[in-house]
Amino acid sequence: MSKKLFFILCAGGAVLSFNVAASAALVPSIASAFSIPQFAAGKIIWLYMLPYGLSALFYGPLVRAYGTKKIEITCLFVFSCVNLAAALSSSFGWLCLCRVLAGVTGASVTPLAIIMISRRVPKEKRGGYIGLFFSSTFVSSMIGVFLSGVLPWRWIFFIPAAAGFMLLFPLSFSLPEEFPGRERFRMQYVTALKYRRVAGVCLYIAAISLLYHGVQQWLGVYFSSVLNRGQLEISFLMTLSGISGIPGEAAGGRFADYAGRRKAAGTGVLLMAAGLFLLVLRPGAWLLSISMFIWGFGWAFNHAGVSTLLSDLPSSVLNEAASLNSSLRFLSGGAGVLAGGFLLRRSFTAGFVVFGIALAAFVLLSGKLLKEKQKERGFSLDQALK
């Protein structure tokens, strides 16, 4: 893969990721701006995640049928427009609608990146590339969270809108136009899920995303309502979690190439559980910062390991698997936000304990769900459909 193409993929991921994590940090400010309760304002999170998850299912099959260039340019243009509209929104209802449309169009970026890296990078180097791609998204996310503490909340939507419009020009010249076989549009998920490796990875992704987002998206509320932290300190803590994800993604990808994808995933989950259990103690400033660093590093380490394993899947199931990855991460993540809100509004301490125990126990299941060796050789979607 050329450096220029890889940079374009990373830039697209950065535009997409800029305000995803920042939205959680902005919940208190948006609630204040529209004079609504914080838990009500929190719907801007799952109203982005659920449409993202549903829409991601279409992009893998669409890429196979129509190629990459037209799809990605169209999605980036609409994504930029709705972020601009969100920045100018005069009501909370309008902001919610913009978040829905942003989720629908933003869902194209990650499946495209995984598919292109898998096609153009040798297996022994994919972990490094995938780690760097997601590190770029964490850098952007971290910048967004940091700026959410020093800029008015509307600017957190203006910035990705402007960046997206500027990226359209180099994207139109650098992204290859691929029409692999000019296949007709088919969504072959039922057949793909009959392949045990795909089914196992998908179950794993769904479970880990539910547990992570069930905590992550309510941390801003926890810091504000329980620990009495101001917006600047909330943004700092969320930024710290993002910063730790930068080396976490890179280290997780390298570790996946060196020690195996499954070991990288399990190590990341254990680190997440450790960071969460520290939060139960309602720590002071230093220990709170450490817990957030461990939490973010562990999530990124796990993410890189699982994403690299995903890129190793056979080409016959890769497009469906890449779309399922993004879809399940956001659908299950959105469900996690709802479940986390249900538990944590009653007791943050009890909720953190429940999620922490679930994470620690989940490591035991990874051996069955994440299989790195090909055991079902010769599997083909086209053969299965005949």
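The above is record 1. Record 2 follows with the same two-line structure.
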Amino acid sequence: MSNPMTPAQILKRAEGGDGDAAVMLSRLLDREGRYDEALQWLAKAANSGHLLASTVLGARLVSARGAPHDPVRGADFIHRAAAKGQADAAAYASVLAATGVGRPQDWDDAMAGLAMAAAMGHERSQLALPVARSMTLAEWLAPSASHRAAADPADMRVEVFPGFVSPAVCDWIVAQSKGFLRPAPVYNAAGAGLEDQARTNSGTGFSLLDLDVVFALVRARIAAAIPQPIETLETTNVLHYAVGQKFSPHFDFIDPATPELAADVAGKGQRTGTFLIYLNDGYEGGETDFPVLGRKIRGAKGDALYFRNVDEAGNPDPRTYHAGLPPTAGEKWVLSQWMRSQPQLQL
């Protein structure tokens, strides 16, 4: 086994035009917080035609991770690398086509890009492709049938969507979430995420470049079901509850009466709704409890629950007080999707 190169050796090789060394050097510089220098080395290698450097640079520009947010330029780097056979770039390109970031949104291009990445040997795309193809695009994007879960039609909007996604889609989402779980935070008055005994479950979030076409299709299906513009959806989260883990009663709306949160509402819009997809069976307890409404709801695998967090005038609705009750046996997986009253920056 060869010894790893020292930083000095990596620098020397990068200076000599070695694109792989330039990518390694950029990662070393990132660890030191020298993001501008890291970008310069990536750009040098990318402009010389190095495909991995092009992919990494493009991803950073699209996601604003240690880079200025420049989705159009980032998408150009990614698409050029994909066209020349870089598998990660092809997978990223499929997501950009699905989400309309850096290029116009195009589902046909998204599916073609996913198939291309799979053909190039991109393992996640190979596994995602049959899941994405399990329904036609028309079926994915069609509005879904629902029924009200509240007993009185005058109550706030609480709807259940039976069989919203297939078991295969549920299994895919869970599989992509395992290994990335961390304690799920609650948010204080300043909006900072903190661990708190009010919430003992775990979860993970999927930002733009963590997505794949299956996740993008699920997000589009949610937007069509409500209906609401897909641009208003926040980052998608997947939550896990082991036996005894809970999320105590809380509101999902953002209280504009709290000065620190008023700025968040003004800048990003109010959190108008919550959409949950139940991802598994085989557990007991774990209902979504609405104590004000006197209702406890638990969907089967693939079912979804939607409730509005605001009233018809757009004001926070106190009837949305709810809790994630603890499973008493087994484990619970659920996808959680919030949406806002105005478009969100896709990062």
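Residues 191-195 have pLDDT under 50 and may be disordered.
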